[in-house]
Amino acid sequence: MSNYFYVSPEQLIKDRAEFAQKGIARGRSMVGAIYDAGVLLIAENPSASLNKISEIYDRIAFAGAGRYNEFDRLREAGIRWADGTGFTYSREDVDARALANYYAQHLGDMFTEGQKPLEVEILVAQLGSKIRPTKLYRVAYEGTISDEPFFAVLGGDAETIRARFAAHEERIHPLKETLKNAVDALAGPERTIATADLEVGILEDRGTRRTFMRLSDNEVSELLS
Amino acid sequence: MGLPLFDAHLDPGPSFFHYAERAGLTSPLGETSTLSPHATTVIAVRYNAGVVMVGDRQATGNYIASRDVRKIEAADRFTAIAISGTAARGIEFIKMAQLSFEHYEKMTDSALSLEGKANYLSPIIQRNNLSSPLIVMPLLAGWDPSHQIGRIFEYDGAGGCYERFDFSTIGSGTPFADSALRLGYRSDIDLDGALELGALALYEAGDNDPSTGGPDFVRNIYPMMVTITAEGFRELDAEDVAARFRAINDRRTQSGGVAGGTLR
């Protein structure tokens, strides 16, 4: 027989939260922001192939911060969920809010019942249409879901970056300005981030069904110049 | 539908079809049948800068069920899929193909090769045709960006996939369309030649096969004509298609219905 020691629920949750926060803090941060014609997702990511930002559906994109293997599994589940829902019902029935809720439920379950909480934060972005609004849903490691009006910051240094970015972003700007503000906020005053270390994706209407697009290093440099 | 998470050893990977099967989204399996596909003529002709496809518009049961069906669809920017056989399964098949190619691209952040797409469809056709009386026979054509050529892939009833380097046809009008293509095809055929030959072959099929709809001058409904090139999938304008079929029809009227010309 093994011995069980009593741990109060408060202590248990505090320990688990600390564990998850530490794991997330090890990764670099990312910003999602609404601009005048769409949604911008930008992450500091030295790898050009291990993506943090991804297309989920026609008007929905995903971004993750924290442990790559954990959020990538959630990204894949999101694509499957979206394609499966669109196949079963109709493409217009695929809603980012429903997906964000599923992520929240899963992260919440893992936080309280899992072997260990997931060390990730998720952003689900939706480009608005006639039937749905433009939205940024941020899902935290313990399953808290928040609906961010202009922008969201995920990852380790989120509070500092959030404060830096908030200085510019009380209203909606064009892409060029939003991107510049986001890069400045991610870098901070003492540091510059090379374009090659940025991963940038946008959701924007270009007359096609799919609205997600990755911006190349050249396109990012041009927007930042 | 909940969040579809899988353990690593059970994960269906980037294949939407395998995920859909596991999630119970695909149609149920039934008895095998000996019915062969009926109705329809779709033609694909390979030329020096891509592929031309021509398809009739008629859905046939015991009577004409519809006169303006689209049997050729873009599966993605560089790939076209055409169907013959059971309409319901055919439409589901096109949907599955479109979704699968896009799903793969989103999951892996890279597009499937054209050959990869052609092979991917084999087990889907096999699953349907060997376990259901509702046969579907597709035709896949596309522009292969890695080899810079147009390519055509045809299938047999059991899902076998064969590349064709000249032309291919599916549907009940095949004997008639195929004869016209065999007589008219040249290895150095260009876009205009391929469009002309494709239209002529379809006219022949419509003329001889009761389940293939030829040009309908009364209702102004004409077969679909598409090209797949380095620029992608493009459907010809209705007026352009109408003019081509009117020209063929005028020639046929002048010759009193005699189709023959110079043979070699």
Notable characteristics:
heterodimer; A: 225 residues; alpha+beta; Glutamine Phosphoribosylpyrophosphate, subunit 1, domain 1; five-stranded antiparallel β-sheet; B: 264 residues; 6 helices; 34% helix; 24% strand; globular
How would you characterize the overall build of this protein?
The complex is a heterodimer of chains A (225) and B (264). Chain A has 225 residues and is α+β, with helices and mostly antiparallel strands. Chain A has one domain: Glutamine Phosphoribosylpyrophosphate, subunit 1, domain 1. In chain A, 39% of the residues lie in helices and 24% in strands. Chain A contains 6 helices and 10 strands; from the N terminus they run H-E-E-E-E-H-H-E-E-E-E-H-H-E-E-H. The mean pLDDT of chain A is 94. Chain B is built from 6 helices and 12 strands. The longest helix of chain B is centred in the middle third of the chain and has 22 residues. The N and C termini of chain B lie far apart (61 Å). In chain B, helix 2 crosses helix 3 and helix 4 packs antiparallel against helix 5. Classes of the chains: A alpha+beta (225), B alpha+beta (264). Chains A and B meet through strand 3, helix 2 and helix 3 of A and helix 1 and helix 2 of B.
Give the gist of this structure.
The complex is a heterodimer of chains A (225) and B (264). By secondary structure, chain A is an alpha+beta fold.
